[in-house]
Write a structure and sequence with these properties.
By secondary structure, this protein is an alpha/beta fold. The protein has a single domain, classed as Rossmann fold, CATH 3.40.50. It has three helices and eight strands, in the order αβαβββαββββ. Strands 5-2-6-7-8 form a five-stranded mixed β-sheet, with helices on one face. It has a three-stranded mixed β-sheet with strand order 1-4-3, with no helix packed on it. It is elongated and about 50 Å long.
Length: 171
């Protein structure tokens, strides 16, 4: 009888430990697309003027690998089944760089200081980025393009974007 209790206790401990150690599979998302296999001609890239994209500034509570959802006026939950592959500020910076490279092919869009001075620098500050569990998304950002001296504003602007897509419900 004592042997049966001990065996039952061991089985319960093993079972509870296995349940506690179980992690649900988490999807990892990237904001930028896959890297293209072809690379531009090095000589052509060297001839283009350089625009340096500084790391996008994002509120500290958002700059995480967790995907955050607003569930109330003052409450935010982290998604339990997915996360970003890198901090949000890095992911946004990399995705923006890829998009700018397509939009501005006459420039080399650099993330780091090049050997020479960049012609211009791009500064982006995200003031708010809210995603609700309903699928509603709000992005508020300011941006500037400044001269290499970081004092001369060439252009500046802001955007307030809303997206009211419905979240896909399974079942």
């Amino acid at each position: 009888m004592m042997h049966f209790r001990a065996l039952t206790l061991v089985a319960l401990v093993c079972l509870s430990t296995g349940c506690l150690a179980h992690r649900e599979y988490r999807h990892i998302y990237a904001l930028d697309g896959a890297v293209q296999a072809s690379t531009p001609d090095g000589a052509a890239v060297a001839e283009r003027p350089v625009m340096q994209l500084e790391r996008v500034l994002i509120p500290d509570y958002l700059d995480t690998t967790g995907i955050l959802l607003r569930v109330g006026e003052h409450e935010i939950h982290e998604n339990t089944t997915g996360r970003f592959g890198e901090r949000l500020s890095l992911g946004v910076t990399h995705a923006l760089r890829a998009d700018l490279a397509l939009q501005l092919p006459q420039y080399t869009i650099a993330l780091t200081q090049s050997a020479g001075w960049p012609v211009r620098q791009i500064l982006v500050n995200v003031d708010a980025f809210d995603v609700a569990s309903s699928g509603r998304c709000v992005l508020v950002a300011e941006w500037s393009i400044v001269g290499a001296d970081r004092r001369t504003f060439i252009i500046r602007g802001s955007r307030h974007l809303h997206d009211h897509r419905r979240r896909h419900q399974s079942g």
